[in-house]
Design goal:
With 195 residues, the chain is mostly beta strands. The chain contains 1 helix and 16 strands. A hairpin with a 2-residue loop joins strand 10 and strand 11 (128-133).
């Protein structure tokens, strides 16, 4: 059993036959009473995101999962025949160099942050790949955006920009094509310009 006070970002636990990965953790203490642990979790089977609350000191079942380092190689579109619509994303295990595909359904929304050569942690359990753990932030190069506007370097006015992997992020007005930006993979938002 795992104490809920030990649930941190990335931790995986089991509840009602489902595996949940913690996305955010918050400890709330109010007055004299006991504290509350609030976590935002992702169901690794359905990719749905929900919030759960526990009282301090409660226990949850620890999940038997393993994290392996892997590298994203490429994506391949699947033929529309027989209901196999979508894309497969190919990864390479960094230890044994074995290549394997993961479906878009398995990855959930994480697929949009992938770019060639990206190092990720693959969460495996019950004999299969369950989810990815992305780095908290990834650096991308802007490949398309509107014109830059001088004088807007301090304001919080944003415009849409397409990154080198196709991800669309709102960036400050002064950003231009070819510049590198850091994007937070937990929120999908612009963090800072990278020199």
């Amino acid at each position: 059993m795992l104490n809920v006070n030990d649930l941190r970002n990335g931790a995986v636990f089991k509840e009602s036959g489902n595996l949940f990965q913690v996305l955010t953790y918050e400890h709330i203490k109010m007055g004299r009473g006991s504290g509350t642990i609030k976590v935002k979790v992702k169901n690794l089977k359905t990719n749905s995101i929900t919030e759960k609350s526990f009282i301090t000191g409660a226990k949850v079942e620890e999940a038997d999962v393993e994290k392996r380092k892997a590298q994203f190689l490429y994506k391949q579109s699947l033929p529309a025949e027989a209901g196999r619509d979508g894309e497969n994303f190919y990864f390479m295990d960094n230890e044994n160099f074995e290549q394997f595909p993961l479906s878009q359904g398995t990855l959930g929304d994480d697929f949009k942050y992938l770019k060639e050569g990206l190092e990720v942690a693959l969460i495996t359990g019950e004999g299969q790949a369950l989810a990815l753990e992305l780095p908290n932030s990834i650096v991308y190069t802007i490949s398309e955006t509107g014109p830059e506007e001088k004088g807007n370097s301090v304001s919080n006015v944003y415009k849409e920009a397409v990154m080198d992997n196709g991800l669309i992020v709102k960036v400050p007005m002064f950003m231009k094509i070819g510049e590198k930006v850091k994007v937070d993979t937990r929120t999908g938002s612009y963090v800072e310009r990278v020199k």
